[in-house]
Amino acid sequence: xxxxxxxxxxxxxxxxxxxxxxxxxxxxxxxxxxxxxxxxxxxxxxxxxxxxxxxxxxxxxxxxxxxxxxxxxxxxxxxxxxxxxxxxxxxxxxxxxxxxxxxxxxxxxxxxxxxxxxxxxxxxxxxxxxxxxxxxxxxxxxxxxxxxxxxxxxxxxxxxxxxxxxxxxxxxxxxxxxxxxxxxxxxxxxxxxxxxxxxxxxxxxxxxxxxxxxxxxxxxxxxxxxxxxxxxxxxxxxxxxxxxxxxxxxxxxxxxxxxxxxxxxxxxxxxxxxxxxxxxxxxxxxxxxxxxxxxxxxxxxxxxxxxxxxxxxxxxxxxxxxxxxxxxxxxxxxxxxxxxxxxxxxxxxxxxxxxxxxxxxxxxxxxxxxxxxxxxxxxxxxxxxxxxxxxxxxxxxxx
Length: 399
Hints:
By secondary structure, the chain is α/β, with parallel strands linked by helices. The protein is 39% helix and 13% strand. A 7-stranded mixed beta sheet has the order 1-9-8-5-4-2-3, sandwiched between helices.
């Protein structure tokens, strides 16, 4: 590295700078008061707040039913079980996602395969999906479930995926962990117009948070009931649903193998409070994203393309470095200068677990090229203009 560049970095003086995370929760006094109110109440779990939170989620996304659980991973798991995913079935998703989008299928004993992405959007490639489905039909290996991933808060082309599901007979779970508050064809993501179930995440870096948590939304009553049963040990207390004769008021039945995936009242109260600010949060994220686009307009980078059919919730600000060979150096220099950046994501098929299942480098070229160029820049509602300018200045010096 030249002395000139070293002097530039010295001028940044990272030792005197605060750390800028790539994402963080935004907690207000109202959020804190909502949690305190629950802590002082009679119920801190299995009380009245959770159903209120679920109802408000359904209103926001135009779904009939919401089933809140302790993580989006849990939501993906019970969604697969509700759709009767079993051993020898196939679940397809994309390599550019968090591992849970694929793992949920493995939890059910199913086989996993992937569909490559569109390099310019980071979303599932409809062209690649069409080709893969046609080939799978010939060898009788069609998927039972496809999990499109709304990367960074931008919806996949759900109408086209839905049309393909009618031809090839698969179910659809939207992994919208990033996309609460986003829209597709001017309707809320989560309305399940083109899917069976949609999943949202409430992890602290997501759009809103419950600490940890997630929710599955659907318009199908039988799926909703199955997921409710699965999240709480499959224990039935409604005597109308009993399989055996009622023996007393204490009676309950375990009618299947369920899990302890419940969300508690403390988490639900935080989520309910945060949900009131959803539109404000999404608007601020979009404003910040546009500022980044202006600040970095003349840099040798690309922003992920957001299709005209989508209004993104902009969970992430992902840029693609034109030259993949320098991406890792850029990544390291950001961290050295106390600027939190991240990779969303390293291809799932190249994780050791999935390589042991037979996947290898070269299987999904666009996903692999994407992961060699992508960097997620800091983006959250409290991000200040000075912080954004610092991010831009640091990137300029590195490049």
